[in-house]
Amino acid sequence: MTNPPSIAIVGGGLSGLYAAYLLHQKAIPFTVYEARNRLGGRINTHAVPQQSHHQYQRYDLGPTWFWPEMHPHMQQLISQLSLTAFPQYHQGSYLFDRGHHQPPQHYPAGMTTSPVAMRLAGGLSSLIDALQLPLPKQSLYYQHRLSRLTQQDNGKITVTFITADGTIDLSYDKVIIAIPPALFNQNVTVSPSLSPHCQQYCEHTPTWMAAHAKFIAIYSSPFWRESGLSGSASSQVGPLAEIHDAGAYQGMAALFGFFGINAAARKTAGHQALTNTALEQLARLFGEAARQPVDTAIMDWSQESMTASKRDLYPPTQHPHYGLSDKEVSQWQQRLFFAGSETDTTAGGYLEGALNAALRVVKHLSNTDDC
After folding, report:
1. Angular region, 114: left φ>0, alpha ψ -120 to 50, beta rest
2. Which of 107, 259, 290, 292 has the fewest Cβ atoms nearer than 10 Å?
3. Nearest to residue 93, comparing CAs of 241, 232, 290?
4. pLDDT tens-digit series, residues 84-107
């Protein structure tokens, strides 16, 4: 029996971590290298101490929803990991923000989605925690940023990382890339070149939601619900273009919104000015109580150098046509593999796409002769 190949997974977001989880289930050794000091990638939460417990309530700063009818893989994994899902709150009127000197327009029928949007108790970081839990701690490395991939004459790949202690070179039989294609294209030198199609895909594929920023205001009670409001609103005035109820499962209330201001304007304004104008808007829509949050947070993904490339500062006008074919997802004679949500052909950009991409790569690896 031959020894299993050495496998490096670059990127500890949902796709990379799920690939590690699947390999661990198959007793195939691996090592995950994450550039940040945490796992999760675009999944991140803002934690607020509970006043009555030594625990934290968590609010999503990145993706929030999944749709079980469209995302069966996600639903199956949540069930398998015994996590708690609950529907997005939508009872009550939906508001349209008409500006500073006009009252908001009410739509009593509210805003419902079909299929139903679901959230996770504890935020989506609960999923990251559950996937990480069974993995050997010695297989997870943080603050390792990929800078170069070089295929050796014997087929193995030299993987070059930048760390706090300098540059290191490591050799692996197989490498899974689970970072956004645009970030890979911008930051990583490869030799030999990728196939022309794969190279062009990495160069021109936008990172989903990388241009956006999220604002969260946390409250002791959902006062808008008491006024017959759903917490959902839209605005062409801003600064928040889209707003929703973001209350924790059996926890404190919250509202979140996506900024309708571009990345450059947000950076110029700064967090304090954005917070002030966002709270002003929430008060205009939902009442004066909105001016007194327990806590607030802003997550501007465009300023996250480990998520957004320079090409990602402006969002696409529509959902991109994502996906690498089965042929293109593996490079260098099935030594180098691409995962990550943007490589999935059916649910690219979504959480489901991250899971699908990881599963496809692990199936590729399992079907090779030496794995």
Report:
1. beta
2. 292
3. 232
4. 999 999 999 999 998 778 888 988
Q: Are residue 135 and residue 239 in the same domain, yes or no?
A: no
Residue 3: pLDDT band (50, 70, 90) is low
Q: How much is the average pLDDT of 216-239?
A: 95
The reply to whether 25 and 147 lie within a common domain is yes
Could you write out the DSSP letters of every residue in 80-96?
HTT--EEEPP--SEEEE
| Residue 309 located in a structural domain | no
Q: What is the CATH number of the domain that holds 73?
A: 3.90.660.10
Which range (45-54, 321-330, 360-369) has the least confidence? Answer: 45-54
Q: Which residues contact 204 (CB under 8 A, 6 or more apart)?
A: none
142 and 194 co-located in one domain: yes
Q: How far apart are CA 78 and CA 88, in angstroms?
A: 16
> What is the separation, in whole angstroms, between the first and last Cα of the chain?
11
pTM over 0.90: yes
Q: In terms of DSSP H, where are the helices of the chain?
A: 14-25, 72-80, 125-132, 181-187, 196-204, 223-226, 263-269, 271-286, 351-367
**Of 347, 364, 360, which is closest to residue 74 (Cα–Cα)?**
347
> What is the separation of C-alpha 115 from the centre of its chain, rounded to a whole number of angstroms?
21
Q: Which residue has the tokens 């759903």?
A: 230
Residues 291 and 150 in one domain: no
Q: Report the domain count for the chain.
A: 2
Q: Is 145 left (phi over 0), alpha (psi -120 to 50) or beta?
A: beta
Domain range for residue 291?
50-121+211-303
pLDDT tens per residue across span 309-333: 999 998 888 899 999 998 899 999 9
Does 360 score more than 90 pLDDT? yes
Q: Minimal CA–CA distance to 60: which of 126, 131, 127, 123?
A: 123
Q: Indicate which CATH number applies to the domain containing 186.
A: 3.50.50.60
In a domain, 21, yes or no: yes
